[in-house]
Design brief:
CATH superfamily of the largest domain: Periplasmic binding protein-like II
CATH topology of the largest domain: D-Maltodextrin-Binding Protein, domain 2
Helix content: 40-55%
Order of helices and strands: HHHEEHEHEEEEHEEEEHEHEEHH
Structural class: alpha/beta
Strand content: 15-25%
Radius of gyration: 23 Å
Oligomer: single chain
Length: about 300
């Protein structure tokens, strides 16, 4: 196991503003966090943090110490990344973030295979459909779908993606026809809701331009898989990646609608820190995931759908 230093603990407490959250992130108890912070303050002879029953705040001395610690740890990361290329066997922790459905159904099994090939590497997978702050959460490799915002992280295309609007045959039989995105105003749209979510504005290609359409509905969730289950239960219309909807569409639980207005040019991407601070184990995992995803049956289905407009 990777040894957690007092500086690691202090930095996570500052960033998460919580002893318990820092302990959870570092996989140590709150009591250990508190004791190690106290030990660090005793060693330095200054108070670094102000504690109350409800919050943790950084002192002036703590802010200065945190800034220095971050500069030092970033330099150490770069050095460790260089040194790792001199080892015969990659080792250490990789923190991976992925969308819930893709992460659970596809990425998790691939990580199990990767772990078997590299037993000294620890993989920690966070699956969530919410927007994750990659820097604050110390993510080493993030898998992302759809249209991505500008980022200082290195972006690498892995495989094609395609977003589909779909509903169950039973739902469509009992609701107005869906021949144009404007018709969604008369439908129950199943919405992905979390802090920072933009999924209340579905995207379509209309007259050659990417157009955002406001949508509404009485059901929303922070999980894309729950939305798929609701759509399969005839409760509304959903817009999600084929990687997420593949099982439901294969089982004929859902059928695509509004196909003439689907976006083109979408991909599953990998986001990583800039090259100088990336380690050998991250590069190995990135190459492994790309190769395995390119050979995945859903990738072939996405490519076929893009070419022929039908699901084989």
């Amino acid at each position: 196991m990777h040894a957690v230093s007092d500086i690691d603990i202090f930095c996570r407490v500052v960033e998460l503003e919580s002893f318990s959250e820092a302990g959870r992130d570092l996989r140590i108890s709150t009591a250990v966090v508190s004791a190690r912070i106290q030990k660090l303050e005793d060693k330095l002879g200054v108070r670094l943090l102000n504690r109350t029953t409800r919050s943790v705040g950084v002192t002036e001395a703590g802010a200065l110490y945190y800034t220095t610690c971050r500069e030092v740890t970033e330099r150490l990361k770069e050095t460790e990344a260089h040194l790792e290329y001199m080892k015969d066997k990659p080792q250490g922790i990789i923190k991976i973030s992925a969308p819930y459905a893709l992460g659970r159904r596809v990425i998790a099994p691939l990580l199990a295979e990767f772990k078997a090939a590299y037993p000294h590497v620890e993989c920690r997978l966070d699956v969530t459909d919410r927007v994750v702050n990659l820097v604050d959460d110390h993510i080493d490799l993030a898998i992302r779908q759809g249209v991505l915002p500008d980022s200082s992280w290195v972006m690498r295309r892995l495989v094609p993606d395609h977003r589909i609007t779909a509903a169950s045959p039973d739902y469509l039989a009992h609701h107005p026809p869906l021949t144009h995105p404007d018709a969604l105003k008369s439908h129950q749209c199943l919405l992905l809701r979390f802090h920072g979510s933009t999924r209340f504005h579905w995207q379509f290609l209309i007259d050659g331009r990417v157009t955002y359409k406001n949508v509404h509905g009485d059901l929303d969730s922070s999980s894309s898989e729950i939305l798929t289950a609701w759509a399969s239960a005839h409760l509304g219309v959903v817009q999600q990646s084929l990687w997420t909807l593949n099982h439901a569409i294969t089982a004929r639980q859902l059928v695509p609608v509004l196909t003439p207005f689907e976006l083109t040019g979408l991909y599953v991407h990998a986001l990583t820190p800039e090259r100088k601070s990336r380690t050998l184990k991250v590069d190995l995992l990135l190459d492994y995931l790309e190769a395995r995803l390119q050979a995945h049956p859903i990738t072939q289905r996405v490519i076929h759908y893009k070419q022929y407009g039908v699901l084989e």
